[in-house]
């Protein structure tokens, strides 16, 4: 299964299964100026999976996200 979506990151991988993300606020930022900021100027509130499943989070919901891929 492959996973797509989420936010623009400093090191972008597609599909995003190859990424590991520590828990952080899921908000836009400027990683050009702040090296500790994980996300750039674009964050999407949905994720798509190759098996036909999608996750959508309401835009008004505060969200913290972490991701660890198990092989």
Keywords, separated by commas or semicolons:
71 residues, mainly beta, 3-stranded antiparallel beta sheet, two-stranded antiparallel sheet, 0% helix
Verbal overview:
The protein has strands spanning 3-9, 21-25, 39-49, 54-56, 64-67. The radius of gyration is 12 Å and the shape is globular. It has one domain. The mean pLDDT is 77. With 71 residues, the chain is mostly beta strands. Helix content is 0%, strand content 42%. A hairpin with a 4-residue loop joins strand 3 (39-49) and strand 4. The strands form 2 sheets. The protein has a 3-stranded antiparallel β-sheet, with no helix packed on it. Strands 2-5 form a two-stranded antiparallel ribbon. It starts with a strand and ends with a strand.
């Amino acid at each position: 299964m492959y996973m797509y979506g989420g936010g623009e990151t400093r090191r972008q991988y597609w599909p995003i299964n190859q990424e590991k993300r520590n828990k952080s606020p899921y908000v836009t930022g400027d990683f050009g100026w702040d090296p500790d900021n994980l996300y750039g100027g674009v964050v999407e509130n949905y994720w798509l999976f190759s098996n036909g499943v999608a996750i959508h989070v309401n835009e008004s919901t505060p969200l913290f996200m972490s991701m660890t891929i198990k092989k």
